[in-house]
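Escalated from tier 1: zinc ion holo job.
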Amino acid sequence: MVVLNNLHCSLSSATGNVLFLPAGHHSVSSNTRLFNGNVFSRSKNQRVTIRNSSSQPYIDQLNNAKLIYSVAPSMGHNKKSHPESHFRVPSIVLALEQLELTPEFRDSGEIIEIKDFNPASVDDIASVHERDYVSLLEFLDSTMKKDVVFNIGGGPTYATETTFQDSMVAAGAGLALLDSVVAASKINKDPPVGFALIRPPGHHAVQHKPMGFCVFGNVAIAARYAQRVHGLKRVFIIDFDAHHGNGTNDAFYDDPDVFFLSFHQDGSYPGTGKFNEAGAGAGEGATLNLPLPAGSGDAAVRAVFDEVVVPCAQRFKPDIILVSAGYDGHVLIPLAQLQFTTGTYYMLASGIKELARDLCGGRCVFFLEGGYNLESLALSVADTFHALIGDPSLASEFDDPNVLCEEPKAQVKEAIQRIKHIHSL
Ligand SMILES: [Zn+2]
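Tier 2 regenerated the structure:
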């Protein structure tokens, strides 16, 4: 048994040998490549002319691909000691390399990284946010002096001199994946799932301002993009972050064509996402909020998935599934009091992939949201990758059952019964 507490993620040692994995696994002898700009360089190439490292047309690679991902670490968007730090995405990429979950370890082409993509356009962002807010952030970006950090929203959320541009790149990384998944679904009935390894996160950002570490609503922007550009009318959004995705919730609250389903810790930030918040007007019933009691863990999520997520999605009949993939419900993250494990995220990813295959031609894109313990974040995303490519889980090596307490089974059951009654499931 290997426990997370015994792992060491020395990300501050940017040029040294970084040991991340327990004994018995491969470790990368030098990780300098991770930090020298190759992985994180921005490209200005056209979003639609995506190519892989061998410069073959990307579309030719899609037949074998099971997973495609994009990386936007927003290295300039950082505030010292803030949990939403620029170490988050590099820690994930490092784990993926060490667990051989990057394209260079998969000659068959089952994993592809999209490196050439455009930032989102202002019009893309303005499909969800007010143009005045977008302009303000762009103004701050152009006028800030280096290293100046402003708190610009609740949460607290900050902005640096690169926040606007970084956020545009992050949103664009998600849209590029969406383009690729949709293109793949036209030639393959079992297309790859997308995973956007991006930050800043998005699900708390509201129409006119940033909030809760989030700047632009990446998932909401992608939902509107899927409808507008690809004609995918019905979008089903699953948000498994520990906190309620209030920004996404609000963006589609009266929209019958975008179903927003969030399960999150009851009473946690930002305090919204109660049982009775179920949509309004034409969108009544197309929002489902399930607050779970503190202490909810793997058993709770399995029940929620089987009894709530699956029947909801089946009834809605989506054209695409988007996922707000937050990893801050992990038992080792103090920002919430949930008890999700690496295995919980593996199970969720497997289930969601199967759901997408059954309901919407396999079209599905995950977007990184929260997750602030670098070790549990990286390993949970890595095990999500395992699930999405059909590899076995390594959760039994990563998770330590000794840190888990008994789940509040009766309260969870009551919560599930209540939401099933409200939504007639
Ligand atoms: Zn969160």
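Confidence is low (pLDDT under 50) at residues 1-57.
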